[in-house]
Amino acid sequence: MPETRRVAITGLGAVSSVGIGADAFASAIREGRNGTSEITSFDASGFPFRMAGEVRDFAPRDILRRADPDRWGRSGQLAAAASRLALEDSGLDPEEVSRGRSGVIMGTTSGEATVSSVLGEQWVSGRMKEFSPRVVAQAPASQISAAVSTELALGGDTQTIPTACSASNYALGHAYDLVRTGEADLMFAGGADAVNRFTHAGFHALGALAPDVCRPFDRDRAGIITGEGGVSLLLEPLEAAVARGARVYAEVLGYGVNCDARHMVHPDPESIAACIRDAHASAGITPEQVDYVCAHGTGTPTNDATEVQAVREVFGERVPPISSIKSMIGHTMGAASGFGAVVCCKALHDGFLPPTANLTEVDPELGPGLDVVPGRGRDASPRIVQNHGFAFGGNNVITILGRPE
Amino acid sequence: MTAVTTEPDATTRLPAAVPLAITSVGVVSAAGLGLDALGEALASGGRGHAVPVGEDADQYPQVGVRSVEGFRLRDHVGRKGTRNLDRLTGFGLVSAKFALEAAPQGGDPDRTGVVVTTSTGSTQSLVDLAGDTLLQERPYLVNPSRFPNTVLNCCAGQIAIWNGLRGANVTLAAGQCSGLNSFRHARMVLGLGRADRLVVGGVEELSAPLAWGWHASGTLAGGTAIGEGGAAFVVSTSEAARAGGAGIAAEVLGVEVGFHPASRGNRAGAVARHVERALARSGVSADEVTEVSPGSTGLVGLERAERRGIAMALGRVPEVRDVTRAVGQCYSAAGAMQVAGLLAAWRGQPSGRRRLALVTAVGHDGNVGALVLREGGGDA
Which domains are delineated in chain B? Predict the structure, then answer.
């Protein structure tokens, strides 16, 4: 294995349904605030379940400086805005960042789904001659990371990772690899997805939507709430961060990645347990060292049972506190594990455990002694945290973050 | 802070690239099934199948195509479990099957992963979903067995399921440069020991709606055909391949990718810089390059800039091996087709010396990159 260097997270950006900016996002999460409500971004009147976590007050022009919002789809706008916020948060000189070997890896589930929705609607109504070159150019998933590199004038690796709902965790892991091997000087990593009719219809058809709110780990949990957002984390060598006196939120200690290779939509506890072990080995830690697990926690009966089973298999008697921020912002798809990573950074830096909102009673079927941090965040001093992301296609990715020593 | 002030073209600071070995290849293209069919089309200057296929063939706009004729997934993998799979995933499954069958057997499935490039996933599946949710009496009456087809990692997930591959499973999108990015990505995964072996490939599927999208885009030069298909490669580090006694079809040496949108000007210069960096990290000189496979053939405003960039970096334009006449412009699968085309041509026309090819790509979005491919791999 090549010689590698330590990697720090020094900038956070979030464009979420509970707040824009990492501080606004994290403080809302810490309070247990719910960001979901009736859908307004498309006509959802024909759907029996109409709740989503939409980012209502996102005004791209207020945040973006270089990228023209008219040229990008909503996912690209969200990714670019989150990355601009992460750069501002880092205190780095934007000119220096664009001069270096800097790049971006952005995860997504549905790519530019609001763009696909426009084109799809034109197609099925026989109006293909109305396809606009501007809109067609926005459609490839690659445009999500291209929007970021355009906004920040980055010249390095520019990849979108459409590995669905673990995508931003993989983006974070791959960006970490690029920085630690010296292939990049610094990287932005995160994800973006937009609430849209297609995704909402698809999850409804799978029977995965909750009627009102998302209740992870609850006895009465009924499913997910579709969500959206953009999230970005800035990674740089720890040594460089310390030398410039940067605020270091966390050190990336390692990550695990594997694939169930069994079923497109059903999670597999053994495979998830193997992924957790892989992540621990990569980070050089043992289960006893993990102080908190930021769960995938979608709030479907199957996911939460499978996830807890896998966690118990690895952690045995002592299961760390485990909570789901999807209870507040819904399932933000390709951005979900990125939001998890941001809240983990804040938890390590500010000293708290993020909560699971909307909890009435922990499902007894999940076994005894499960601490899901119900209601509001809890003051604590976690040193090492574990962030879960699982996805369609059996794509599991788990990142391990630590408080810098 | 020294790290962020490093100039992007400071090639001297970059370490040599760990060579990757392509031990086998599988391809499905307008030239037909398999590498030999592609090689024959390239040798004869053939065009591949040049009329639209499928139920929507009569709805295409006036645009040239290279389509895969008579493709039926069940002919290759059996009928069971294929009913809900789309054409794009079919191309992925069959190209991966061809590649895995030709690869050395006995690889550990827990340590074998997948890297697949895509653009939007299956356009046809998206359009089917649009029809279900917009035209049916109720907007939620979509087929739950087909919805996962619209999620962009469907093809990579299915390749893992059908072949029991439990290693890192990656789907990647970088537009016209996706193929180059996939090999750079593979090097990171393999070089850090996150997997021992990867199936690396690209897939694209034609449909009338996609053809209308290309048509509307205004990015195709007159006479340029759009293409479809899949190409997949079984890849490990060259060191591991040699230790395992595997035959090596070619080695991927330096791969450099970056982002340089039109607004920054001098696109040719950006191509040249990536070529120079890729050569430097490969430890080879410009004179050693015997041929080049450019990726942006037939794309407005890019083809000339790409070739000018190659000439700037090499001092000449060596023999051009273009696959687009045979397989069409395959966008996110173009890079995989470029590499497959070189392998096909080399296999069809053996040479006494190890050839060294440059594979380049540049996209309207700003993606740019260069890859160095060396024939064979018997001796280090």
Answer: 20-243 (3.40.47.10), 250-375 (3.40.47.10)
